[in-house]
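Dear Dr. L.,

I hope this message finds you well. Following up on our conversation about the binding site, I have prepared a predicted three-dimensional model of the protein together with S-adenosylmethionine. For your records, I am including the exact sequence and ligand specification that went into the calculation, followed by the C-alpha cells. Please feel free to forward this to your student if that is useful.
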Amino acid sequence: MARWSAEQGPRTEGPAAVGLPAGSPLNGGREDELDQRWAKSELDRAETSAELEDIEIAALLEAIYRFYGADFRSYARGSLRRRLRRRAELEGITTISGLQERLLHDRACMERLLADLSINVTSMFRDPAFYRAFREKVLPHLATYPFIRIWNPGCSTGEETYSLAMLLSEAGLYERTRIYATDINAGVLAVASRAVFPLEKMREYTENYLAAGGDRAFSEYYVSGYDGARFDPRLARNIVFARHNLASDSSFNEFHAVVCRNVMIYFDVHLQRQVHELFYSSLPRLGVLALGGKESLAFSGREEDYETVDGAERIYRKR
Ligand SMILES: C[S@@+](CC[C@H](N)C(=O)[O-])C[C@H]1O[C@@H](n2cnc3c(N)ncnc32)[C@H](O)[C@@H]1O
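The resulting structure of the complex is given below.
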C-alpha cells in the first residue's frame, strides 16, 4: 500500500490545486497548513486502508481455516498479502473480503488459492554443497544405527527425497532406512509417488548430482519414457509419502535425521518456533536437523540445544 508523507503528498487534487496561487495574501497564509492537513488526511486514508486490509486478511484466513481446515494463519504476512492480492486480481475481485466470499462458495477458487500459496519449487540435488556435506558429515553418523529413520517434511514433488535415497543407496545404507516424506499438499505427494520427472530437467540434475560428489552415471537411476524420466522403483521402496501439516499436526515417530529445507521461510517467527519444537521433540540425542540455506536456528528458542555440524549448509546435531 503506497504511503504518502506530508512532504510527498499528491498535489493534484488537494486544496492547493483548486485554490489560490502559492503565497497569495488572499488565503491568509494558510495554504501550507491546508496543504499539510490534506496530505495528512491522505496518509490517514492510506493507513486506514492498510489496516482494513489486515483485518480482511485475518478474517479470510480464519474463514478458510474453519471451513476448509487449511491453516495459513501463521504464514509470513508479506508474501501472503501479495499472493492474496494477486489471486483477487486474477479472479476480477477488488477487495480481500470479496475474495473471501468467492473462496467460501467456490471450491475451485479455493483450489486455485491453495496452488498459489503452496510454493512447490524444488529440484534434485538442489544446492549440491548441501548434499556433499550431508554425504560426508551426516551419513557416517547415520551408519552407526542398525535401522535409520529420516523425516523429510515439505518434500514437495519428491525430488529432494529421491536425492536423499540415492545418497543413502550409494553409501550402502538405504536397505536399512525408511524415509517419511510429508507435505501439506496432496497434489504434490501424488506427483512424488509416481517418480516420473521431466526429461528436460535431467541435464541440470546430472550436473547437480556430480557437483554433490556423485560418482556414478546419473542416467543409471532412470529410464526415459514417453512421459518423462521414470526413476528406479527400488529408490521408492523405503519411502513413505504422506500428508502432514507442520502447522497443526504432531510428530509421529522419532527420527535420526529431519531434513526440512526451504519450508519454514514461508512461516512467521511464531510458527517457526512451534515447528522447531516439533523437530526438537522428534529427534533423539545426536539426531540431525538439516535446514535450507536461508533458514537457521536463530530465534528458534533452541539455539543452545544443537551443535553445528556444518554452519554454511545449515546442518545441526541435537546435544
Ligand atoms: C519450496 S517447497 C520446498 C521443497 C523441498 N523441501 C526443497 O527444498 O526443494 C515448500 C514445500 O513446503 C510445503 N508446505 C508449506 N506449508 C506446509 C505445512 N504447513 N506443512 C507441510 N508442508 C508445507 C509446500 O506444500 C511445498 O511443497
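In brief: The pocket of S-adenosylmethionine is lined by residues 118-122, 126, 153-156, 160, 183-185, 188, 245-247, 261-263, 266, 292 (CB under 6 Å).

With kind regards,
A. P.
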